[in-house]
């Protein structure tokens, strides 16, 4: 649970913590970890976290309106419950939300603007993480308060955008302290699509004998007016149509708060303990604008939990064993304020509470078989019990089924094993076999329609094999190439007829490349490329022909090609320039593979000029070629629909301090 900062020097010295919860050199791990450091975070100045994460190989985050998004990590862009529960979003190794209460837009709760770095694991998360670390995870690392700094940024841009961040850290009478504030607002480039988002983060580290303590807290407040799809083939190409919002009443208001106490204790020369105790609370009001009912949803949950691990280190490796536990109480209310019609009655559709108790044990170890060959592996056993209470009448009303009180439990087992071989100076080969798991989400279990049943729902299981090579040179040249193949079983989703599918199966194969090439002392080329094929491995005929699934079909919203290439030029110490080429390849917009989105290419330009010590001006020109494109393309209810991408935008800012 240490949050060591990346070390300077050769790429082999880059330290990561996400793979095992402890600091280790990235190149020595069989787990592929992409690192977006503080310099990258400042350079991007992301208006949406998708801008930052999509620099990593294997990652494709669809940007929605405001803070909304859909995520893909070694996967198609997943929606609904699959999108909410297939990726684990963390802050300093602790999940932003309780796993069974995931939110498809869960990354809006991360204080990413203030992060010291972001680490991304592609593929199953390994033994130290449980349910939801299925296709991958994102770990947002908070700043190290022992690094004294004072920094403030103000940025203004197109469509009424304004961003303010301020941070201060250093030694205090109580220990090393940090506090940061981030505020962002925008009018929105589409009608009735404003956003206000504020985050605050604090941290205090201190030592007592052989023990290091860290107290951390974060809070997020979100107010968003939501713009929805535009309809019609290639409607995103019409700027006037793209700016329209057919659901101006849509909104999302949310709050999240987290607090944790971390401890690292050196028991002896070979033994150490690390642990954390934490609490979280969040709630949200949301207009279900995509349903005919336009109902209001009220949802939230409160949690307390602990993480613990004991590590024994030897001259040949290490072994960690640990136990985690968490209790959560969550609720959901769906209320239709419109007059009743058809299968949508006015009033309460759902009103329930769920108590969830999760417990897990795990082990993870590394062992040097030779001077050049290391073995690593581990496993995690986790069980979750849900106690569901219905606060309204049991039975079906319209298209809504309210279950009577009940309890359910699910147990998962996730092993993994890998090898890392240093076969030449600067070269390493690695291979890993791993299993990822996803227990059902609470709204998949208890937010049902007549004819749907809980029986038959099993945890999703993803089995993964991957292998690759890494190159790192003292001059800064790095390359990582990874090939993977994965099979996912017990895939749960609701088909176009609104029926639960509990036995879906998909396959995933791909290749990821990531590298940095210092061409000269002033010019560096870097980037990431992803090639992936994602297929359905089962048949599912439905009434909606466009959503009929046939074995061998490509999974919809899964581009075969993605790349992000940057040229960074520093002609003088005080001047930095960057040009970024973003490519999203063609993909199918429906499960039957009849509707297609052609893909797009974007050019982004960024620059920064240090005018004097402690004062830096920076600017960005996003979508410099003013390309008409879609952030998301979909085919549903007999027609195309899109989230249109923003036209050319400009932003200017000033940064004070270090």
TrEMBL record:
<dbReference type="InterPro" id="IPR036942">
    <property type="entry name" value="Beta-barrel_TonB_sf"/>
</dbReference>
<keyword id="KW-0813">Transport</keyword>
<keyword id="KW-0798">TonB box</keyword>
<comment type="similarity">
    <text>Belongs to the TonB-dependent receptor family.</text>
</comment>
<keyword id="KW-0406">Ion transport</keyword>
<keyword id="KW-0408">Iron</keyword>
<dbReference type="InterPro" id="IPR012910">
    <property type="entry name" value="Plug_dom"/>
</dbReference>
<dbReference type="InterPro" id="IPR000531">
    <property type="entry name" value="Beta-barrel_TonB"/>
</dbReference>
<keyword id="KW-0998">Cell outer membrane</keyword>
<feature type="domain" description="TonB-dependent receptor-like beta-barrel">
    <location>
        <begin position="223"/>
        <end position="623"/>
    </location>
</feature>
<keyword id="KW-1134">Transmembrane beta strand</keyword>
<keyword id="KW-0732">Signal</keyword>
<keyword id="KW-0675">Receptor</keyword>
<keyword id="KW-0410">Iron transport</keyword>
<dbReference type="Pfam" id="PF00593">
    <property type="entry name" value="TonB_dep_Rec_b-barrel"/>
</dbReference>
<feature type="domain" description="TonB-dependent receptor plug">
    <location>
        <begin position="29"/>
        <end position="136"/>
    </location>
</feature>
<protein>
    <submittedName>
        <fullName>TonB-dependent receptor</fullName>
    </submittedName>
</protein>
<dbReference type="InterPro" id="IPR039426">
    <property type="entry name" value="TonB-dep_rcpt-like"/>
</dbReference>
<keyword id="KW-0812">Transmembrane</keyword>
<dbReference type="Pfam" id="PF07715">
    <property type="entry name" value="Plug"/>
</dbReference>
<dbReference type="InterPro" id="IPR037066">
    <property type="entry name" value="Plug_dom_sf"/>
</dbReference>
<keyword id="KW-0472">Membrane</keyword>
């Amino acid at each position: 649970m240490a949050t060591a900062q990346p070390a300077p020097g050769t790429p082999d010295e880059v330290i990561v913590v996400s793979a095992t919860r402890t600091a280790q050199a990235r190149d020595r791990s069989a787990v592929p970890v992409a690192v977006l450091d503080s310099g990258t975070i400042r350079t991007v100045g992301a208006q949406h976290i998708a801008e930052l994460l999509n620099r990593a190989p294997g990652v494709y985050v669809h940007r929605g309106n405001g803070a909304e998004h859909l995520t893909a990590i070694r996967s198609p862009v997943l929606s609904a419950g699959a999108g909410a529960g297939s990726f684990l979003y963390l802050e300093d190794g602790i999940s932003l939300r309780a796993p069974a209460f995931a939110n498809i837009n869960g990354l809006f709760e991360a204080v990413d603007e203030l992060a010291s770095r972001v680490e991304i694991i592609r593929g199953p998360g390994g033994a130290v993480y449980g349910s939801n670390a299925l296709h991958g995870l994102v770990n947002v690392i908070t700043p190290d308060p022992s690094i004294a700094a004072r920094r403030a940024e103000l940025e203004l841009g197109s469509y009424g955008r304004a961003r303010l961040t301020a941070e201060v850290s250093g030694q205090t009478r109580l220990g090393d302290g940090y506090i940061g504030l981030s505020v962002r607002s925008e009018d929105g480039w589409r009608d009735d699509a404003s956003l206000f988002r504020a985050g605050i983060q604090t941290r205090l580290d201190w030592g007592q004998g052989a023990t290091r303590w860290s107290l951390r807290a974060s809070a997020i407040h979100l107010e968003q007016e939501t713009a929805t799809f535009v309809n019609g083939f290639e409607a995103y190409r019409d700027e006037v149509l793209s700016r329209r919002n057919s659901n101006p009443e849509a909104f999302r208001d949310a709050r999240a708060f987290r607090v944790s106490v971390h401890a690292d204790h050196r028991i002896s020369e070979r033994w150490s303990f690390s642990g954390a105790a934490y609490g979280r609370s969040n709630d949200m009001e949301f207009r279900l604008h995509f349903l005919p009912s336009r109902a209001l949803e009220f949802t939230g949950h409160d949690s307390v939990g602990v993480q613990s691990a004991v590590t024994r280190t030897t001259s040949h490796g290490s072994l960690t064993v640990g136990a985690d536990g968490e209790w959560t109480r969550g609720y959901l209310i769906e209320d239709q304020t419109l007059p009743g019609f058809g299968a949508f009655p006015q009033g309460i559709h759902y009103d329930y509470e769920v108590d969830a108790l999760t417990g897990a044990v795990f082990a993870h170890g590394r062992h040097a078989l030779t001077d050049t060959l290391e073995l690593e592996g581990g496993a995690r056993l986790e069980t979750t019990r849900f106690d569901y209470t219905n606060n309204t009448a049991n039975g079906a009303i319209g298209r809504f089924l309210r279950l009577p009180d009940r309890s359910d439990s699910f147990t998962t087992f996730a092993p993994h094993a890998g090898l890392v071989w240093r076969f030449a100076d600067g070269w390493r080969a690695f291979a890993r076999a791993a299993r990822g798991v996803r227990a059902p989400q609470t709204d998949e279990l208890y937010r049902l329609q007549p004819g749907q049943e809980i029986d038959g729902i099993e945890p999703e299981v993803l089995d993964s094999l991957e292998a690759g090579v890494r190159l790192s040179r003292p001059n800064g040249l790095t390359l990582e190439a990874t090939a993977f193949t994965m099979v996912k079983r017990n895939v749960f989703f609701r088909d176009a007829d609104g029926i639960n599918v509990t036995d879906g199966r998909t396959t995933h194969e791909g290749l990821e490349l990531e590298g940095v090439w210092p061409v000269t002392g002033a010019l560096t080329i870097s980037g990431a490329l992803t090639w992936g094929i994602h297929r359905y491995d089962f048949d599912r005929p439905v009434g909606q022909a466009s959503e009929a699934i046939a074995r061998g079909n490509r999974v919809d919203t899964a581009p075969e090609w993605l790349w992000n290439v940057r040229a960074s030029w520093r002609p003088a110490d005080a001047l930095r320039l960057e040009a970024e080429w973003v490519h999203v390849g063609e993909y199918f917009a429906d499960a039957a593979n009849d509707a297609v989105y052609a893909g797009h290419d974007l050019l982004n330009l960024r620059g920064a000029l240090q005018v004097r010590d402690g004062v830096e001006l920076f600017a960005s020109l996003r979508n410099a070629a003013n390309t008409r494109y879609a952030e998301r393309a979909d085919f549903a209810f007999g027609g195309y629909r899109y989230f249109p991408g923003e036209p050319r935008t400009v932003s200017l800012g000033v940064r004070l301090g270090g």
